[in-house]
Specification:
about 190 residues; 6 helices; globular; alpha/beta; Glutaredoxin; two-stranded antiparallel sheet
Length: about 190
């Protein structure tokens, strides 16, 4: 009887450890850590490529290839009512950055449509007049790597000249005050 209990405890402990490791692998990117290595499908809109400073062609790109000091990633879904309500705020954020000579070439924004096809991303972009580049993640592959976060989720990544990434902001929910958010990003990233 003692061996059975000991064996059962060992199995339960092993399952507990495996679950804890799996949960750690599927957690959102943490501030201070590198951004998980994700490959985004290449954009086909020349304006989006120019905005991000990416060359045309290729099948995919990585966040550290974007020509900026900071990249804001919004993980959204066209079916998420919170994301739909947040779209005007994200549009204001994009406009505030693009209209600021101090931030325009230093901060870029990209949206990743969790579970959304190219058609759905295009529909969302058109319906909410979204100017920033949006990429599909129809198979949830990127979403899984990013910790299967709920939406909308915002991650800000500081890029180094050597190609290293550092997460400086990682949070679920609406941005609320755009000016305060931008001031926080400037401070966290060391932008002047």
């Amino acid at each position: 009887m003692g061996r059975k209990i000991s064996g059962l405890i060992t199995v339960i402990l092993a399952l507990f450890i495996a679950t804890a490791i799996s949960a750690a692998e599927n957690s959102p990117p943490k501030v201070g850590s590198p951004l998980p290595n994700i490959e985004l499908p290449m954009l086909n809109n020349p304006a989006d490529l120019q905005y991000l400073g990416l060359p045309a062609g290729g099948k995919s790109f990585k966040v550290n290839q974007i020509k900026a000091k900071v990249v804001i990633i919004q993980i959204y879904s066209m079916y998420c009512p919170y994301c739909q309500a947040e779209a005007p705020n994200v549009n204001r954020l994009y406009a505030a950055i693009e209209n600021s000579p101090a931030l325009k070439d230093k901060i870029k924004i990209i949206g990743i449509g969790a579970g959304n096809t190219q058609f759905e991303v295009g529909t969302y972009k058109k319906k909410y007049t979204v100017a920033l580049p949006l990429v599909p993640d129809d198979d949830f592959k990127i979403h899984k790597i990013m910790g299967e976060v709920r939406t909308p989720y915002f991650i800000a990544v500081k890029l180094s000249d050597s190609g290293r990434t550092e997460v400086i902001y990682s949070r679920l929910g609406a941005l609320e005050n755009i000016d305060l958010f931008l001031a926080q990003l400037v401070k966290l990233s060391g932008l002047k």
